[in-house]
Design brief:
Largest sheet: 4 strands, antiparallel
Shape: flat
Helix content: 10-25%
Number of strands: 16
Distance between the termini: 180 Å
Low-confidence stretches: 1-10, 16-20, 68-101, 384-392
Length: about 400
């Protein structure tokens, strides 16, 4: 019995002990959530990313508070002169629009038109609060007066030394026909006199006469404005027609009329006539001229000139129209001119092209006269050199 018990005790298996660890709190919680394992992992990653972003934001805000921005300083010694100028100097547009620059002063003047005598009397009274142009804080002002319809005739007042409030009390008379009054502008420019350098303009007053009631005399103050660009002198306009017949090689030029010509005589009129030149290969070829019309700025000619120009030469021809003022005692003066041809531009080229594209049909058009030197430069005429004669 005892043997059986002892043998049984020796052969009986020991009590079983499990080798797997017991689940912890996280395992119990995960086991309690009814989700698959991959879903739990995705949720955990998302939470970790959000926490990381939150920490980054907190650190960034803390650093910004810790290091406030310092004011930027520019070391002018470390940059080039051109850069320095751009940093410390304003733009020209800002200078022109600054309030101080607009304070050029003001001018008092009077205006009276005599309808019977066709005269305009301009009185330059005084100026006040002029802009100082000299280093001493003063100016040496004087006034130039002219009409845009006749820029050749300009008047000047006396120069007043070292003052910003000159009193001129001078008057000037212009001969202006009533028909030309609405098309003209009265210009009064205040200059600072300088004996050894160019005179500087302080400002100007421009008064379009079309906006003025000239039935009664006026006297008023006007603020000086910045001087505008020098206007191109109005020389007048000329109207003519062109007709070319290729089969016969005949070029017909009809000088019809001109208007608003520049005054060339002392009495305010001119004695105009028109010259028509043909230039072949930049050399003068043929010429004609109209009759002279006395004492007028709006002559009517209606004169016909016919030139023979072979069709194979028409592309090499320049037609020059010039308006002259006739003078018996002195040399005739050119008022203005223009040229047409394949080398021309603008309205002149368009007129020439219309003539070529409409054979046998006269094409009439108005043209503005241009300065003589400008046209001559564009033509670039070849000069004829005279060779010296050899004498034995």
């Amino acid at each position: 019995m005892a043997k059986e018990m002892s043998s049984g005790s020796t052969t009986a298996p020991p009590p079983s002990h499990s080798t797997t660890p017991r689940p912890g709190l996280a395992g119990i919680l995960l086991g309690a959530i009814p989700l698959p394992k991959w879903a739990l992992i995705a949720v955990a990653v998302a939470v970790a990313v959000l926490l990381l972003l939150f920490l980054i934001c907190v650190i960034k805000c803390y650093c910004n508070k810790k290091k406030p921005k310092k004011k930027e300083k520019v070391n002018l010694l470390s940059v080039s002169s051109s850069t320095t100028a751009s940093l410390v100097q304003p733009e020209m547009e800002d200078l022109e629009q600054s309030p101080e620059d607009k304070k050029r002063g003001k001018l008092q003047y009077s205006l009276e038109y005599n309808l019977r005598a066709q005269e305009m009397k301009v009185g330059v009274k005084q100026a006040a609060d002029l802009k100082a142009m000299d280093s001493g804080g003063t100016s040496d002002p004087y006034v130039i007066v002219y009409l845009t319809s006749d820029m050749r005739k300009k008047y000047e007042t006396k120069v007043f030394r070292k003052t910003l409030h000159p009193v001129f009390n001078e008057s000037f008379t212009f001969q202006v026909p009533q028909a030309e009054v609405p098309e003209s502008t009265l210009v009064m420019q205040v200059y600072d006199f300088n004996r050894f350098a160019k005179h500087n303009i302080i400002g100007e007053v421009r008064l379009p006469l079309a906006s003025v009631n000239l039935q009664c005399a006026i006297e008023q103050w006007s603020d000086l404005a910045a001087a505008s660009k020098v206007e191109q002198e109005q020389l007048g306009e000329v109207c003519f027609s062109l007709r070319y017949v290729p089969s016969t090689g005949k070029l017909t030029v009809v000088v019809l009329e001109a208007k608003k010509l520049k005054r060339m005589d002392s009495h305010g009129l001119s004695d105009p006539f028109v010259k028509v030149h043909l230039i072949l290969n930049r050399k003068k070829w043929k010429k004609r001229k109209t009759s002279v019309k006395k004492n007028t700025l709006n002559p009517y000619f209606n004169e016909v000139f016919v030139f023979e120009v072979p069709f194979n030469q028409i592309q090499n021809v320049d037609l020059v129209i010039s308006v002259w003022d006739h003078d018996k005692m002195t040399k005739n003066e050119q008022i203005g001119k223009l040229f047409l041809g394949c080398r021309a531009t603008g309205n002149q080229l368009r007129h020439w092209s219309d003539m070529l594209s409409n054979p046998r049909r006269p094409i009439a058009q108005w043209h503005s006269l241009q300065a003589v030197d400008v046209v001559d430069k564009a033509l670039g005429l070849k000069t004829h050199l005279k060779l010296p004669l050899h004498t034995r």
